[in-house]
Amino acid sequence: MTETDQEKPDPSAERLAYSVNEAARLTGLSRDLLYDQMRRGNLRYVKIGRRRLITRQHLEQFLGAAS
Questions:
Q1: Per the domain annotation, does 41 fall within a domain?
Q2: How far apart (Å, rounded) are the C-alpha atoms in residues 45 and 33?
Q3: Are strands 51-55 and 46-48 parallel, antiparallel or unpaired?
Q4: Which strands sit side by side in the sheet containing 17-19, from one edge to the other?
Q5: Among 15, 18, 36, 50, which residue has the least CB neighbours within 10 Å?
């Protein structure tokens, strides 16, 4: 790795919203758990067409409430 590679931020950290699969990968939680929490109203999301997107802010709120 070069020095410039080490300085580049993780591109997923810059994103405003994530798919359920991406949110699961980032948090280490399962997709089923995330979908269940969305159904129960514990994890807010934005629905665009048929897609459910979890914003960074909603994910941070959910994780903060869980701790």
A1: yes
A2: 14
A3: antiparallel
A4: 17-19, 51-55, 46-48
A5: 50
Q: Residue 22: which domain range?
A: 13-66
CATH number of the domain that residue 43 is part of: 1.10.1660.10
Q: How many CB atoms lie within 10 A of CB 35?
A: 15
Answer whether residue 1 is part of any domain: no
pTM, full prediction: 0.75
Q: Is residue 7 part of a domain?
A: no
- Domain count of the chain? 1
DSSP state of 16: S
One-letter amino acid at 37 equals Q
Cα separation values, 11 from 2, 33, 57, Å: 17, 24, 16
Half-sphere exposure of 2 (CA within 13 A, CB side): 3
